[in-house]
Specification:
210 residues; mainly beta; 14-stranded mixed beta sheet; two-stranded antiparallel sheet; 9% helix; globular
């Protein structure tokens, strides 16, 4: 590790699992495989001398079984509005480089990959709101994701729930929501009304900063 860095902002993930996501509890994924996307809005950050304020990035992942069994595929989508230096910085962070071993979820996910597809450079439109649990992601013709609060099936009222992981490396606390994603990049993704976790990002090479 030679370059110091930090990023602060917001993130959300939408995967094929039911609300809550069994993977967060070290249980097998709902469908015995895992596929999902993660979207990141960096509000403040620095990679060496490269400022990362306003940078956006997306990660697509696919596993034939539980994540810990590996054999995954991964593709990053980097924002065309960011500079080449910022894109390279995000690749380094999201591939777990310049990071203490397994200190971040990025490093953990990368270690589980069998194939890393070439990153795509696309225009990323991204809004993340923890309070309302409403997030929207649009990446040209590649990805469309929308999230909303989970609702009571009888009354239609909003249901609020959180997952708290004191020792988590992806997040310490996340708002639960319902999301739908349609994606067509290195591999296709299509799920409706499935797990969403929305959380803050506050990372350094040593992991999450409380």
């Amino acid at each position: 590790m030679n370059i110091d860095w930090y990023i602060k902002g917001k993130q959300f993930g939408n995967c094929n699992c039911v609300y809550g996501c069994p993977c967060q509890f070290n249980a097998p994924p709902t469908d015995n495989y895992c596929q999902g996307i993660g979207a990141f809005l960096i509000e403040e950050g620095l990679f060496g001398e490269v400022p990362l304020n306003g940078v956006k990035a997306v990660s697509m992942m696919k596993f034939p079984g539980p994540i810990h069994e590996g054999n995954g595929q991964m593709q990053l989508i980097l924002d065309s509005n960011s500079s080449i230096e910022q894109q390279n910085a995000m690749k380094s962070i999201m591939y777990g480089k310049e990071t203490e071993p397994m200190a971040t979820s990025f490093a953990m996910y990368y270690s589980m990959m069998k194939k890393i597809h070439d990153p795509l450079i696309k225009n990323i439109k991204l809004d993340i709101n923890l309070e309302t649990r409403i997030c929207n992601l649009n990446v040209e013709d590649i990805i469309t994701t929308s999230t909303r609060p989970i609702t009571n099936p009888i009354t239609g009222e909003e249901h609020r729930a959180r997952i708290n992981l004191p020792n988590g490396i992806e997040f310490k606390e996340a708002e639960m929501a319902s999301g739908s994603t349609s994606a067509n990049a290195a591999f296709k993704t299509n799920f409706n009304n499935t797990y969403v976790g929305i959380a803050l990002v506050n990372l350094t090479p040593k992991g999450i900063i409380n």
